[in-house]
Specification:
Order of helices and strands: EEEEEEHEHEHHEHHHEEEHEH
Number of domains: 2
Strand order of the largest sheet: 4-3-2-1-7
Strand content: 5-15%
CATH architecture of the largest domain: 3-Layer(aba) Sandwich
Radius of gyration: 22 Å
Largest sheet: 5 strands, mixed
Shape: globular
CATH topology of the largest domain: Alkaline Phosphatase, subunit A
CATH class of the largest domain: Alpha Beta
Number of strands: 13
């Protein structure tokens, strides 16, 4: 039987791989939609380059919460043509929005769409794939009234709790539809947090730590976009009743890229990605099923920061080719970090917080990892 694929999302990162910068908005003239805040978009025509052009059968979401046009999109058409200017008091870049648009309504709306999609499925139907991209806890930080004041970490904490609430609704829908026992759930994120407190629907970098003592990235060093671990080490939680052992923990380095090859293995379908993605993606299925597999222990992972600082990791060793963080930490430390070496070398097994720079003391490891990075390019 043919499986169905649906994307319900509110893309929330300015990464090129996100659909909100992949949409090819039809325009009334030669200028792009972004050049004039979407005012020259021909909303009567279909939007190209979106999820429907990449294998999904249905899409519902918005472009991006803090960029125009502020309106929902269903498949390849806007639900409501944006006809009014975004007010200055509302978070985000100036542009057109649908009348009555409220930023706080986005996550509840996409959550309900996802729930409705799941409840429309039964155990007898073909398998389905649902990509549900939450807008929270990215800016604009706009928890609904239901969650205001529920946490002890300000508006940011309230918004994180709303994420929990949305995930809970998805789980409940799977239970109600009879699909829970036969569904693999993957919950992860694309990058670490800038730890904003939510003031002005955003807040200064690190303010949720300073004002509420809430460490959004745990004990990891840095913030979103950094080459340090807080920039890209994020939770990846998986649940698959009867197959993944409850409360089991993986200590091997894995990447969100591995989802591609893993799903291909589960479906017993050929890997459809390009050659580079094929080389970078690993099949996690043996790991999930607790079968012996040492291929991940010493795998090579290449990282890069917001500003293009590169790092290479193999096993417990991580080499950073810069004396900076290359991300949000640089914004609040314009004078640098007092790192006196040309690069940074850490052994994450004994230095999880990246405090003991071994760059000058282990030149042979620096050379080894540098050559490894060169071969990967």
């Amino acid at each position: 039987m043919k499986s169905s694929a649906t994307a319900i999302s509110s893309s929330c990162s300015r990464s090129r791989s996100k659909w909100h910068l992949g949409w090819e908005w039809p325009t009334k003239d030669s200028l792009s939609a972004r050049e004039v805040n979407g005012e020259n978009v021909d909303y009567q025509k279909a939007i190209q380059g979106g999820p429907l052009a990449h294998g999904f059968e249905y899409y519902f979401g918005d472009d991006v919460p803090n960029f125009p046009p502020y309106t929902f999109i269903e498949n390849d058409k806007v639900v409501t043509v944006p006809t009014v200017d975004k007010p200055d008091r509302m978070f985000g870049k100036f542009g057109k929005m649908a009348a009555g648009w409220k930023l706080a309504d986005v996550m509840p709306e996409i959550t309900q769409k996802a729930v409705a999609y799941i409840l429309d499925k039964t155990e007898e139907e073909a398998p389905f794939f649902l990509y549900f991209a939450l807008t929270a806890p990215h800016t604009p930080i706009v928890p609904t009234e239901q969650f205001l004041g529920k946490s002890s970490a300000g508006l940011y904490g309230d918004f994180v709790m709303e994420v929990d609430g949305s995930v809970g609704q998805i789980m409940a829908a799977l239970e109600k539809s009879g699909q829970r026992e036969n569904t693999l759930i993957i919950f992860t994120s694309d990058n670490g947090s800038p730890a904003r407190d939510g003031s002005g629907q955003s807040g200064p970098i690190g303010s949720v730590i300073e004002n509420y003592g809430h460490y959004a990235n745990g004990d990891l060093r840095g913030y979103k976009g950094d080459i340090w671990e807080a920039g890209h080490r994020v939770p990846m939680l998986m649940s698959w009743p009867g197959l993944i052992e409850p409360a089991s923990v993986n200590d091997y380095p894995v990447s969100s890229l591995d989802i591609y090859r893993t799903i291909s293995a589960i479906l017993e379908q050929p890997f459809a990605g390009d050659s580079k993605a094929k080389n970078d993606s690993y099949n996690l299925l043996p790991l999930l099923l607790k079968k012996e597999d040492n291929t991940l222990r010493d795998r090579t992972l290449i990282h890069h920061s917001y500003a293009g600082v590169f790092a290479v990791r193999q096993g417990d060793w991580k080499l950073i080719l810069s004396d900076t963080a290359g991300g949000f930490s640089d914004f609040i430390n314009p004078d640098g970090f007092g790192i006196e070496t040309a690069g940074q070398l850490y052994n994450l097994a004994g230095d999880f917080q990246e405090q003991n720079n071994l760059y000058d003391r282990r030149p042979e490891k620096v050379e080894e990892l540098s050559l490894l990075l060169d071969r990967q390019q």
